[in-house]
Amino acid sequence: MNPQTDKAEAILGVPKRKICRKKLVVILSGVALAVVVISCATVTRTVVAPPQIPGATFVGSETCAQCHENITKGFKTATHSRLMAKGDNAVNMGCESCHGAGSLHNESGGATHTIINPRKSPETCFQCHLDKRGEFNLPYHHQVLEGKISCGDCHNPHHGPAVKGGGTSLTVEHDTCAQCHTAQGGPFVFEHEAVREGCTTCHAVHGSVNPRMLKERNANLCLKCHFQQQTASGKIFIGGGDHTSRLTRGTCWSAGCHEAVHGSQVGSSLRF
Asked: What is residue 41's predicted lDDT score, i.e. its pLDDT?
């Protein structure tokens, strides 16, 4: 007797002698996937638990707006506003989904210790953005877990796109990074075009296994944009120049060729 085939026969009505082990695995996997899909599609409750404040109850975002109208009036433009629940579930969403239940905060007249401030700890953000916790634990990362910067330094939680810059904004992505990385912000006589595209063209801004949070550790990073041509003789040309021997010396920015990767005051080849 095989319990697995007995189970399949009971569920599918197929004689167990006609079900091989491999098919059984596929069938049961499909059934499990269907259950997950159906359950996820029919959930109408809050799935991610808001931060907990002992003794506090939810009061709704309208109560928050009585004192924080300067923040709540623009919240409908925020990326996070898409998380707002409708109907009876709305009381557990909105402001309190990130700041915790607000009854004690409201009753105390706004005492700081009665509400959660995500700027003080990224744990609130990690409730939804769990992958970012993992990225911040990589060897090279922005020092959010160490408390030296916060998610709010780079992201807008209350108005507009969550990522500062870009879109219809008058600022660009690189302006956000240049608030701290002033030397890399320029202006330069000869600007690297990648800077115009945004710092995330080359950098994994939350964390990376590569130094300087680079997406690639070698010339492969540059070759994503700079066309490489290999001749029948085995020579490699990049930008019209023969790079056959240069690529063996190190990376493009460490082999004595293009050290000024963000921009240069000297020449378009990006040298100091």
From this structure: 46
